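Here comes a specimen:
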Amino acid sequence: MPDTFDYSAFDIRRPRGANALDSLAMFYQRSLYKEAVYPIDEPPALDLWYDKTLYGKIDRVQNTIIPEDRRIVPVPSSKSTRVYAFDFVGLAFEDFIQHMNSVDINGGLSSFGSGDLRNIEAQIGWVCPQKIYSQYVGNLYQGLVRYYLKRQDVELHQFSSFVPIMKNFLKQSAKVLPVTMTNALLTTVVSSQISGLSIKIVAYDSGDDALKADKFVNNPNFSYYRKAAKKFGLIVNKNSPWILTADLFSPAIMKYISLANRVGLTPGGTITKTNFFPRYYNLTCLKDISNIKKMFVNFYNRYIETSPFYEIEKQPTAQCPHTIRVEHITRTEATMEYLDSFMTDLDWLDLYIELREIEAGGTPLKLDYVKRIARDTYEISPRSNLSSLSNAVMYVNRAYRKYLYDPAHINLLIQNRLTDRTEGATISTSRGGAGMGGGAY
């Protein structure tokens, strides 16, 4: 494939990509790094910006997933701070750094260039997706109280009047950015570190192409670093070469998955390519409605902490015919049980379907049809190990998941360009790739 531009030798030696550039300069510099700066020889890198963008965030059939907590363990060699990753990732990383240290001791690594590829140590690993989503939801709350409520000509007295306001707010919000965890975790504002598959050996700025080239790509040890990582089932992140990620389902990493199982870290039988995701991850869709319920209760209770009273006017009485009195009424705290008196399972199901439709950016699906089949699934409950509501949610997720990984719909969800707050990089999302769908692995 030909390069996008005719890059000069000077530019190739000194890339200047950075988040502060204007759009044209940004496009040139990002193309330069992608096509001419990063080496094209084997082993291939993991490109989370333009190719496998959802690696570790979706399974092989495009369900959004988060790690099973009990599969996350400390990385033994982490010293300065406690670093966590999947059990097999920690085992592979330990063997990798021991190998690199041995080669260095025996004079196999160059002493020139950055020292980042010598004395390698885990600095950052798994980041809790629940915590990330909680912070994300906190921003939604700020949008509710700072903007939405101030623009609504409605009376918010008690929780009963808040429920319809909250419904409308979530639907309006979903037009801009996702509300459900299932879709929020797929945006680029959420780091790929939530997957449990990656370890950072340093914490540099992913938006700084000059730093990548100086510290890693042009480092005399970089080629060996990449090849050694591959040998131990790890793959280098192209746009953050200090991040090593499990190369699912390469023969090398499958050995470590088997080892983790054999030593008892992963109970429950042999792990294969077929059952890996169900064993190591949970489906986010089964948490979505519970998360939304918590938003209703928590948002209202946070609101009444700062606005504990509302006012009502008392009309003149026979005793005081010329006086209108203002009475202050205390708002009552909401509970999940109180919320259930306003909305049934089927009400939640309808709201969930509406949110998923909005988050998908519009689909050919007929909303009434999806709601009817979801209600039928609720009644039939084909999976005996799931509740009626979870059965229906699984159907809804199957109906909408295929629309989430089309690049056009991704662009609608994240509005073409977002800043990756975790890794500090501004990237374009206008180009799709294998990572947009089942080809992520």
Remarks:
- Residues 406-438 have pLDDT under 50 and may be disordered.
- The chain has 16 helices and eleven strands.
